[in-house]
Design a protein that fits this description.
single chain; mainly alpha; 0% strand
Length: 73
């Protein structure tokens, strides 16, 4: 006969808690990836240093501009 180190009710509640935590994590990830700021930062990260310098700016300045209305950077 097999024995479990944890009571059966603990395993069931842990799986429910894990499901809720996983769902919450997926929802927050979805919201952040669909945020225009995140998309703007993604575009900045995909640019090369040469492309950024051709625009006459720096990567830090572009990030600062993306968050200028939210944070004092």
């Amino acid at each position: 006969m097999a024995h479990s180190a944890q009571p059966a009710h603990f395993t069931k509640s842990a799986s429910v808690t894990d499901s809720i935590a996983h769902g919450l994590t997926r929802a927050l990830t979805f919201l952040s990836h669909n945020n225009p700021r995140y998309q703007q930062l993604d575009r900045v990260q995909s640019m090369t240093d040469a492309e950024i310098s051709a625009r006459g700016t720096t990567r830090a300045a572009m990030v600062r501009r993306a968050f200028s209305d939210r944070f004092y950077l």
